[in-house]
Design goal:
Blueprint lengths: L29 H17 L6 H8 L4 H12 L5 E5 L6 E5 L3 H11 L7
Antiparallel strand pairs: 1-2
Helix pairs in contact: 1-3, 1-4
């Protein structure tokens, strides 16, 4: 008689091996995380500051900042400016991001911000 397999097998989305269903309690879809990043970028721009991937990770625990920026640009037709900056103390290069004036208007509509809030 064959022994039954008592291992806890992961639930799958399509019944195929390797495509496990997420069992996380958070309800973060890529779009909602992208909107968090967009809100963060909007807030930084309105304060006259730029954003970068390192600061976004520290603030939002976002490990895919550049990917979210790219997706947001394509999805909403944004033209988020960016530039390379060299850190003088370490000599490493990183990108800074901000919103253009046209993007600020679009982002207000996307995020549902009032014109007098920002």
């Amino acid at each position: 008689m064959k022994k039954p397999n008592k291992k806890n097998t992961p639930k799958t989305l399509s019944g195929q091996r390797g495509k496990s269903q997420k069992t996380s309690k958070s309800n973060d879809t890529p779009l909602s995380k992208g909107l968090i990043v967009l809100s963060y970028l909007y807030d930084r721009t309105m304060k006259g500051k730029t954003a970068n991937a390192f600061d976004s990770f520290n603030q939002n625990l976002d490990t895919s900042f550049r990917t979210h920026i790219s997706i947001l640009c394509r999805k909403f037709g944004l033209e988020i400016p960016r530039r390379y900056v060299k850190n003088s103390s370490t000599g490493t290069w990183y990108k800074e991001y901000w919103l253009s004036n046209n993007d600020i208007i679009k982002v207000k509509k996307i995020l549902g911000k009032e014109a007098n809030n920002g």
